[in-house]
Sequence to fold (227 residues):
Amino acid sequence: EIVMTQSPATLSVSPGERATLSCRASQSVSSNLAWYQQKLGQAPRLLIYGASTRATGIPARFRGSGSGTEFTLTISSLQSEDFAVYHCQQYNSWPPERGWTFGQGTKVEIK
Amino acid sequence: EVQLVQSGAEVKKPGESLKISCQGSGYSFSIYWIAWVRQMPGKGLEWMGIIYPGDSDTRYSPSFQGQVTISADKSINTAYLQWSSLEAADTAMYYCARMSRGCDYWGQGTLVTVAA
Fold:
């Protein structure tokens, strides 16, 4: 099973500042990496797929980068609606015999 | 508009059985894999398994193999997740999601509470 590790667990950021979230895979997942945003009491929402492609309707302030085992989600200027939990997920294997595993999440909170 | 609509919250006792559903609309349900994802209270997302509604090809995460059953009825665009004997540890939110370059659409979640 591919293990996904996110850091930090919690990130305290002031509105308007930049947030940088990391996700590391235990083995290469190429660019088969997605990022999700989950607000309290809501289902996750796809932000980024293919490591760097924004999903439909996602603002340009969200940027994904990386490949192989190291990935980053950058939120360039945090808006009030961006405070949430962010999950990364690898989808390298198809069909996913061993699971398209998620990281444990990074909570972005108001500083 | 693509939508996945899940069945409502459930409160069950240990040992009871349960089947929850996820109905898709706005797209060709048969040709996209559907995933089930568990989120225990205050925790992260866990991949449970997937099904291809077109032929009911089903795959399970090793952690959930034998613990749950995933099925689908393509004639009514619905996928299912079921338990034969619930435990308190099954208390969680369960999401279905359409698989396409990640999970691009999600159901609203079904909260399952198991308590004596």
